[in-house]
Design a protein that fits this description.
By secondary structure, the protein is mostly helical. 92% of the residues lie in helices and 0% in strands. It has a domain of 31 residues.
Amino acid sequence: MLTHEERLAALEQTMLPRIEFINAMNKFTLQQAQDASNVSHELTMLLGIASSQNQDIREVKNSLRAIDTRLGSFDVRFDSLETKLNEHATLLTQILARLPEKP
């Protein structure tokens, strides 16, 4: 029969791997919790960046609409100037046709 000391030593020997396993699982769990926290932090940062870029894209679209409107008004003005230029060219051609030729 085993003495009290021997039984205690045997119990310690059988418990040691279990304690090591529990410690390893605790360490693993803590690491996973830290990793989850890091992922959450990174996702929050990405969400902020995406939101900021979304706002920037809206501003760019609004600026492009304003530029498109201004370009449309330039087209109208250029058409008007082209018409006047053609009228002046026609008038100049008529005037030149009436002038006597140089001897």
